[in-house]
Amino acid sequence: xxxxxxxxxxxxxxxxxxxxxxxxxxxxxxxxxxxxxxxxxxxxxxxxxxxxxxxxxxxxxxxxxxxxxxxxxxxxxxxxxxxxxxxxxxxxxxxxxxxxxxxxxxxxxxxxxxxxxxxxxxxxxxxxxxxxxxxxxxxxxxxxxxxxxxxxxxxxxxxxxxxxxxxxxxxxxxxxxxxxxxxxxxxxxxxxxxxxxxxxxxxxxxxxxxxxxxxxxxxxxxxxxxxxxxxxxxxxxxxxxxxxxxxxxxxxxx
Amino acid sequence: xxxxxxxxxxxxxxxxxxxxxxxxxxxxxxxxxxxxxxxxxxxxxxxxxxxxxxxxxxxxxxxxxxxxxxxxxxxxxxxxxxxxxxxxxxxxxxxxxxxxxxxxxxxxxxxxxxxxxxxxxxxxxxxxxxxxxxxxxxxxxxxxxxxxxxxxxxxxxxxxxxxxxxxxxxxxxxxxxxxxxxxxxxxxxxxxxxxxxxxxxxxxxxxxxxxxxxxxxxxxxxxxxxxxxxxxxxxxxxxxxxxxx
Lengths: 254, 245
Fold this sequence. Notes:
Oligomer: heterodimer
Structural class of chain B: alpha/beta
Order of helices and strands of chain A: HHHHHHHHHHHHH
Number of strands of chain B: 10
Largest sheet of chain B: 6 strands, mixed
Helix content of chain A: over 70%
Number of domains of chain A: 1
Radius of gyration of chain A: 21 Å
Order of helices and strands of chain B: EEEHEEHEHHHEHEHEEHH
Distance between the termini of chain A: 26 Å
Structural class of chain A: mainly alpha
Number of helices of chain A: 13
Largest interface: A-B, 26 and 29 residues
Shape of chain B: globular
C-alpha cells in the first residue's frame, strides 16, 4: 500500500511543480503575506512612536507609557495570521481544484482506478501532496515572522483546515471551473456563520457557531494549541478526505 | 480448461438507458478474443465493468474465478488495460510514466527496472524512452499504453480500439504485437475494425445495443462469407439505424 501511495504522490508532486500554477500561487502568496506582514509591522512601529511621543502618555519616550495590550503579538502576529489564512483561502483553490478534476477531464482516472490502486490510496496520496504544498507555502511565509520574533505562532492548523474544503469539491466534478467555485464558496461559508445568526433560532445559531472555523481559530495566533481545536480541524481534514473517497466510489456506481 | 473470463448475465443501466443487457460469454486462456459492434453496442461498457472501473447493475464477471464485483483489486492485479485514445500523462517521459505505473502495480527496485526494460523492448520504445509522451506520435502513444498494460505481465490484456487514428504502417505493427501475445496472454480486443478482428482474433463476439448478437470462431468466419457478412446479417440493420462512427 505504501509503495502505491508513494508512487502516486511522486507523480502528483512532479505534475504540480511541472506546471506554472504552483509557482504563480507560491509567489503571489509569499508576496501578499510579505507585504501585509510588513504593513502590520510598520503600523505597530508607528503606534509605538505615537504612544511614546511627548504629550500622549505624558512620559515622553518612556517605555512605561505604552499600554500592555500594545505589543508585537497583538498588533502584528494576530492580524497577520488572519491575513495569511484569508490569502491562503484565496490562492489555494487555484492549485487544489485541479487535483481530482484534471484526472477526470483527461480520462486518466480510468488508468488510476483500474491499476489496482484503492480509492482511499488515491485520496490519501492527493491530499498528502496538497498538504505538503501548504506546508511549503506556510514555511515560505513564516520567514517574516521568524525574522521578527523567533517564537512566532501562525496558526498552522487553522490555515491547513481552512483549505481542506477544496479537495472534496474538486473531486465531485470534472469541471475545474465548478470545482473552483465550490472550492472558494464552501470554506468562506464555513468561515463564520454570524451572518446567519439573526435568521435562525438561538440553539441553531449556537450550533452553527460551534462548527464555524473562526470560532475555533482564536487561540492559534497567540501560540496556544488546544487539543479540542486540533481535533476540530483534524475532523474537518478527515471529512475532506472521506468526501473525496465517497466521490471516487460514487463515480464507479454511476 | 476453465475460462479465463466468465461473464454471466451482465447488465448496466444509466438511468433509463440500458447500455449492456444480460450479456454472458466466456474467453479461454491464451485466446485473442474480439468484441465488435457499432457505437453504443456496449463494448466499452463491458470492458469498464471487467476492469472494475464501473459496477455492473446486474450479473458478474469473473477473471480466473475471481469475481470483479467482490474483489476488483485481485482482478485488476491480473489484467492490463490499454483504453481507447490512451489516457496517459503527457508531461511524463516514457521511462518516468512506466516507473509510475510500475509503482502502482507494486513493482520496485530491480524487478521494476527489469519489467520496464522488457516492456520497452517488446513495444519497440527504446528510441523514445526519454521523450515526453506529449510529443510522441499516436502510434508511439498507443505502444506506451500497451507497454504499461503489460508491465506486470498480467495473464489478461484488455485493449480498447488500439488502432484508431493510426496510419496503416502503425496499424500493421500494432496488430503484429497483439498477435504475438497469443498463447502467452489472453487478449480481449474491442474494435470497430472488422478486418482487424478477422485478421488477429481466434473468436469474435458481435454486440448490438447491449446484447450479444453472435459469437463466431475464426474457422467459422473463414468457412462462411467473412466477418463483414456476419456483421451485416446479425447487426447490420440496427447499425444502419444508429450508424457507427
